[in-house]
Amino acid sequence: MTGTPLLSVEDVAVDLPTARGNLRAVDRVDLTLGAGRTLGIVGESGCGKTMLSRAILQLLPKKAKLSGRVMFDGQDLARCSAETLRKLRARSLAVVFQDPMTSLNPVLTIGTQLIETLQEHLELDGMAATKRSIELLAAVGIPAPEQRLAQYPHQLSGGMRQRVAIAIALSCEPKLLIADEPTTALDVTIQAQILDLLAREQKRRHMAMIIITHDLGVVAGRTDEVAVMYAGRVVERAPTQALFKHMRMPYTEALLAAIPKLDTAPHTPLPAISGRPPDPTRPLIGCSFAPRCRYAAGRCEAEKPKLAAAETADHLYACFHPIKLAAGVGA
Amino acid sequence: MLGFVARRLLYLVPVLLAVSLLTFLIASLLPGDLAYVILGDQATPDKVAALRHDMGLDQPLLIRFLGWLGHILQGDFGRSFRTGQTVLRAVAERLPVSFELMIMAELTALLIGVPLAIICAARSGGAFDRFMTGSAFGMLSVPTFLSAILLIYLFAVELHWLPATGYIPFTEDPIGNLRFMVLPALTLALAEWPGIMRVLRSDMIATLQEDYIALAKAKGLTPRRILFVHALKPSSLTLVTITGINIGRLIGGALIVETIFALPGIGRLLIGAIYTRDLIILQGVVLLVASGFVIVNFIVDMLYAVLDPRIRHGHA
Amino acid sequence: MATLDLVIQEDVTATPVRSTRRLGRLFWAALGWVIFVFAAATLVDVLPLPSPTDMDMLERRAPVSALHWLGTDGFGRDELARLIHGARISLIVGLCAPIIGLTIGGALGMLAGYFRGRFESLVVGSMDVLLAFPPLILALAVTAYLGQSIPNLTFILGVLGIPAFMRVARAATLTLARREFVVAAQALGASHARILLRELLPNVMLPLLAFFLLGVAVTIVAEGALSFLGLGVPPPISSWGSMIGEGRESLDVAPQLAFIPAIAMFLTVLSFNLVGDSLRALTDPRQGAL
Question: How far is B216 from chain C (nearest CA, A)?
Fold first, then answer.
């Protein structure tokens, strides 16, 4: 990466007051992302990846407390005024949510939901906005785009709806697109198409992108860098190839092993990770993964390992007993 | 869409039939011989018997009902034996007054309730929200006639700004008409706005939690657009429901208000018919009001389909 | 809720502001007021008050004094005594009428929700037809023909409440009839009657009682409205409604004659609403963890 990164998440923590005490959803995370690069954030449900994305987008729930800095294009988003932030949206920051059935307004037409963004930020008039909307729908691969404008979300299939959501996100040429589990709610057959679409558009527009997912398979080959999250923290971060070839975290290893593979013999039990993530209102003193880790030893329970680079400068991990062997994708 | 409408229309027929049957039964089975009432102090057993035969009152109930129904379907609702006026005529004269009252009341209630609901939903949990919700609850415990007394005392007796009773048709004197209608409409509106505000507010609070609102925010739309277009439209279905339900309450409330403020509407026509035991008017008016109510509900159902495209296409 | 109309809040998502505290201060204050009014109405005869019917033509519309704690009305009658006697009438009608709705409507609702099928359609359909009539008009028509009396008034107001109670009972029964304890009882071969009486009734009773309190509030208002128009309780008996109606004549010279019973009625209706609403939030089986 040369020059200042487009996005720099610095020491960000998100606390949520709950009935059972304070919930630390995101625990002091640092991330950077350069313009035009893709970052994958991987982790189980509840690891804080969605909260992190909301923190970056400044869309946290009212009760949440954010600490740290979210530097985007030289500005700290956490300290911007509401109006400044609003103007930044769509033109600089865009998002695609997981379930297009709930993220698109059911009582407004597709056209309305596309055109309003264009009119708000690009100040296009009705005709120009309509024309541009049709172009966008065609670009994301929706057939007969003119007719779609008057249709409602429920009249489209799941895959088409997500394409619309992507079209909306791309409509004002954002510098950064965050895709939060963009394919989780879709059929497996559609997933690859959507991911390819995202990758294609990203290259074309030289856009930075963050893909959030629980599936390591999604980020393989589609991202420049991967950050693995567990219990609110980033526990491993590396360029994608390096992560898959030389993963250090036992957790990452376990995640990879849990992906079903075509060449496994039938009826082989899936090596799921036993146990559950810790209760976020009762954080552990030592490593959060220790109770489930097969390499855990005494020190792991007493002390929290810090995220640090050892052998190579761009491969960071937080573990006292990292895996030394080279592990390939198929192993 | 047409299939939807047709199906609902079919359901309407048996309901209207049952309503007319019930109306007829109430009027006919209650004690009090109509012939006696009509003849008054001229009643002798012979005259009564003769009148009863003339009016067909000595026939079996079912025949009488069918006869009455037959007349109704031909548009003959009978005529008042007091004034000689046909029921339809009497109703037609009074209907505009009641209509004007109810429409003004509902509009005022919406004008008060909807903005309050939006503000409270947008700032839910805040001081204003809590205050407004408490006030709405308190207002629901204030009977209509109480509000009427209060408003009369305040604006007519103390401040002398508005008249307490009276009426002039709109066509004769628009300003005067409105002056007479303000207090009655406001009285009814005070009874209706809390219901509107509470339900719309809770509906919007639920809507504001939806993902599509989060996306609308993420798209950088103005808060005003998010509230009024993205959040209000899905909740407008509820608004239509409430307004539809309110029409029924408004009819009852209009009765009281017309009497208190001396407005020559359907309500007073009904009360008058009750006082004078004018059975024909009573039967006709009750049937018309009840049927109107059923039809209004039907229209509300149709509006649903217009507002929520999912219902139109058979989803949701 | 200000007119004769018992509409259920179908949406359980509506959160009244004070719902987070289980039974807050307002609840106890409201309950206290209800008990106070109840006690006063019951004990009025032993209280050291002037008779409510004694007319003192020299002291008409008198202000507050040692003899007449709340002054006198247009006929020189003691206002406080009239107020408490009026409470008695309002409460009698207000409590008895909903009982009719509760028993008949509750029974019909439970049976409809339990047996389902054509019986249920019949019950729901007839209630829909009854609901097609604006209630006040029906009440007026019936009292006009049956004659004005307290029993007649109570009867018609009670009947008008049947559909609403039916709905509550049916909704509760529909929710509960699917729960395990009912299915278990059926598996054990319990008869319908047994299930209805031993299993369902105790549970349906709770939301019904909460709704009953709301019904009392509505009935007090309805009776008040009718009496206000002179078409409710037969003169010379007076309830709060008729007092307010009489007070309307002298709004310009003695507004307190209308406002004193008005405030009493408002506080009582509000209290019943508060208590009923709080209890309903607690006892709705749809919200229950059962």
Answer: 23
Using CA atoms of A40, A43, A45, A46 in order, give the dihedral in degrees to the nearest 10. -100
B153·C14 Cβ contact <8 A: no
Cis before C236? omega within 30: yes
Q: Using CA atoms, how far apart are residues C224 and B147, in angstroms rounded to an integer? A: 13
pLDDT digits (tens, 9 = 90+) for B247-279: 777 887 888 899 889 899 888 888 888 777 777
pLDDT tens track, chain C, 290 positions: 333 333 333 333 333 333 444 567 888 999 999 999 999 888 888 877 777 777 777 777 777 777 777 777 777 788 888 889 899 999 999 999 999 999 999 999 988 888 888 888 888 888 877 877 778 777 877 777 677 889 989 999 999 999 999 988 988 888 887 777 777 877 888 787 877 787 788 888 888 999 999 999 999 999 999 898 888 888 778 899 999 988 888 888 888 888 999 999 999 999 999 999 888 887 765 543 32
Question: Residue A2 pLDDT more than 70?
Answer: no
Q: Name the pTM for this structure.
A: 0.79
Contact A57 B233 (CB under 8 A): no
CB-nearest to B199 from C11, C142, C273 is C11
Residue in C173, C163, C178 with CA at minimum distance from that of residue C205: C173
- ipTM of this model? 0.85
Instruction: For residue A209, list its beta bridge partners.
Output: A38, A177
Residues of chain B contacting residue A97, judged by C-beta atoms under 8 Å apart: 211, 214-215
Of B18, B141, B252, the CB nearest to C1: B141
Q: Is any Cβ of chain C less than 8 angstroms from the Cβ of B277?
A: yes
Interface contact B26, partner C, CB < 8 A: yes
In the structure encoding, which two tokens stand for residue C284, read together? 């709705």
Q: Is residue C265 part of a domain?
A: yes
Contact A191, A222 (CB under 8 A): no
Residue C66 domain-assigned (yes or no): no
B306 in A contact zone (CB under 8 Å): no
How many CB atoms lie under 10 A from the CB of residue C80?
A: 20
C30 lies within 8 A of chain B by CB: no
Is residue B94 within 8 Å of B266, Cβ to Cβ? yes
Torsion angles phi and psi, residue A236, rounded to 5: -155, 140
Q: Does B256 touch chain C (CB under 8 A)?
A: yes
Distance from CA of B308 to the nearest CA of A (A): 6
**DSSP assigned state of C23:** S
Q: Which tokens belong to C7? A: 């509409």
Looking up tokens 């950050």 gives A227
C-alpha span between A25 and A51 (Å, rounded): 7
For residues C56 and C4, what is the distance between their CA atoms, to the nearest angstrom?
36
For B276, nearest residue in chain C (alpha carbons): C144
The residue assigned the tokens 């039990």 is A269
CATH number of the domain to which C35 belongs: 1.10.3720.10
Per-residue pLDDT of C5-39, as tens digits, reads 333 333 333 333 334 445 678 889 999 999 999 99
Could you tell me the CA-to-CA distances from B202 to B138, B238, C24, C120, C258 in Å, in that order? Answer: 17, 10, 21, 31, 36
Between CA B280 and CA C243, with CA B105 as vertex, the angle to 5 degrees is 70
d(CA B3, CA B10): 11
Residue C286 CA to residue C171 CA, distance in Å, equals 9
Interface test with C, best of B11, B24, B149, B155 (most C CBs within 10 A): B149
- Tally of domains within chain C: 1
